[in-house]
Amino acid sequence: MVSVGVLYASEHHSTQEIADRIGERLRLRGHHVEIQALPTSSEGQGPLPGDALVLGSAVHDGAWLPAAEGFVRSNADRMGDQPTWMFSVGMAAALPGPLRRLAERKVQPRIAALVEVVRPRDHRRFSGVIRREHLDRKGALLFRLLGCRYGDHRDGVAIDAWADDIARELEA
Ligand SMILES: Cc1cc2nc3c(=O)[nH]c(=O)nc-3n(C[C@H](O)[C@H](O)[C@H](O)COP(=O)(O)O)c2cc1C
C-alpha cells in the first residue's frame, strides 16, 4: 500500500471530478489516497502529501491554471523527491478532426516547461467539459468558427486505465 496525494486545479469542476475518479480507482487498488485542491496562494505550503503524487490541472489558454503552475514552480526543488504523474485536462476532443489531431500531438510550451521541471513518470492529456457559459463572447465566437463541439468529452475508460497503470507501477 502506497500513500498517494492527488492534487488538482480546476475552474469548472471537470478536472476535480477526474482527480476524484483517479483517486477512487487507486483506493480500490488498496492505496491510501488524499485528494486536494491546490491552494490559489503558494503561501504556507507544507509537506507534499503522500509518498507518490498525481498532479493535474485544467488547461486555459495553453497553460495550467495559476494554482497548479505556481505549485510546480514553488516546489521545483523537491519535485523529484517522490514518483509523480501529471495530467492536463483540455478540450482536444471538442475540436474537429485535423485540429484535434494537431492538438493531440502538441504539448503547449508552458505545459512542456512544467513537465521538464517535474520529470513525471508520465504526463497524460485528457479532454474535459466545455460549455457555452464557460466562454466569453469572443471565445464562443472562435469556438463556433473552428467548428468545435460543446459537451462532456471525458473518456472514463481512458482515465480508469491510466489510474490502473499508476497503481501497477506503485505496486511494482
Ligand atoms: C477560458 C478557457 C480557455 C481554455 N483554453 C484551453 C486551451 O488553451 N487548451 C485546451 O486544450 N483547452 C482549453 N480550454 C478547455 C478547458 O481546459 C476544458 O474545458 C477543461 O475541461 C476545463 O476544466 P475544469 O472544468 O476543471 O475547469 C479552455 C477553457 C476555457 C473556459
UniProtKB/TrEMBL annotation:
Domain Flavodoxin-like: 4-172
Pfam families: Flavodoxin_5 (PF12724)
PROSITE patterns in the cross-refs: FLAVODOXIN_LIKE (PS50902)
SUPFAM superfamilies linked to this entry: Flavoproteins (SSF52218)
Domain of life: Bacteria
Protein name: Flavodoxin domain-containing protein
Species this protein is from: Streptomyces roseolus
